[in-house]
Amino acid sequence: MTKKISVNEPVFDDNEVNTAQTILDSGLLSSSNMYGGKYVKLFEKQLTEFLNCKYAIAVNSGTSALYASLLSLGVTTEDEVIVPSFSFTATASAVIATGATPIFVDISSSNYNIDLSLIKSHISSKTKAIIPVHLYGHPVDVVQLSEITSANNIPIIEDGAQSLGSSINGKKCGTLGNLGCTSLYPTKVITSGEGGVITTNDEELYNQLLMIRNHGLDKSGHTIRFGLNLRMPEIEAALASIQLSKLDDFIKIRRTNSNIISEYIDEFDINIPIENDNSFLNRYLYTVSFTHSRDEIMSFMEKQGINTAVYYRTPIHKMPFYQTLNNEYELPNTDIASSQVLSIPIHSGLSNDDINHVGRSLNYALKSIY
Does the N-terminal or the C-terminal CB of the chain have fewer CB atoms within 10 Å? Predict the structure, then answer.
């Protein structure tokens, strides 16, 4: 088999190609309108219907979604925001961009999400927000988190970069907190190339976010608050709209592929992704945990033409920039996870032959190495 299998890759067809060409031919590539252009408004409407929420604000990246959300809550210098360290660096860099300080909390070993039992001890008078990350598409129990934060009236911003389509207790990620943020980067379940979106049921936050993404301008064209150009261009919005219409099918394929991989490795004593009874997973990443020989398994899979990946080999708090913040953290579960996790391809672009090749190769690697 000569085909190289990636952990994730975008899946397009003629619908995306033809729509992109139509927009290029029109010359209407973006809009400075407060409410966005034709395709931005279409995508936002579709997403609110899919998630069953009131408002969606499309922006140019998932990082911008986090940053704008923090700004809408008034997070600024001297404030603190609680985040997990076991995440992509954008979760913390968005906090840094506001002038606030990220406060890192350890994760649960069961699903790699922030450990809710540790939240209360990290809340201070400076805590202005909490950003739980639905890592690998596993939803954080935001209802339980809200019970912890409600006494201090601390807003919750969901980092749902990886969880579009996942749900818990019948509610979709992106609608569980005060604000939800999603990424449309090419490795995500759906993509527009670059892009992000914020969802909320709070009208005041929605109105603030409309201005934040468009230079702080109000309806009269006057800048009345700080804002930037965080707008989503029309091509990206059109791609996102088409991709969103395919999301359910993409997730169905991912879930089928996930089950196939589980069958291949069920005989081994390793941690595999578990779906709780109250959760529905989009299967963004199929991440297993090896107590040893991870790099050897990665090397073997690479020789079979299969790319695997570690998310994340270096936790945020151990990256050079964050080491300069002079805060010392003991995050044992985070350290263990970073040394053991490995993500296996299950994306919707894989054929039946592809996914079985992945499963057989992983089974052989475990028998030979593990």
Answer: N
Residue pair 181/198 in contact by the 8 Å Cβ criterion: yes
Provide the whole-model pTM: 0.97
What is the residue whose two structure tokens read 């529905």?
Answer: 280
Which domain does 355 fall in, by range?
247-369
Query: Of 2 and 158, which is predicted with more confidence?
Result: 158
Q: How far is Cα 359 from Cα 262, in angstroms, rounded to an integer? A: 8
Output the CA angle 309-197-346, nearest 5 degrees.
30
Peptide bond into 312 cis (omega under 30): yes
Cβ contact 227:1 at 8 Å: no
In 3D, which of 275, 233, 238, 240 has the Cα closest to residue 254?
A: 275
For residue 302, being part of any structural domain is answered with yes
Condensed to tens digits (0 to 9), the pLDDT of residues 89-102 reads: 999 999 999 999 99
Which residue from 317, 335, 328 is spatially nearest to 91, judged by alpha carbons?
317
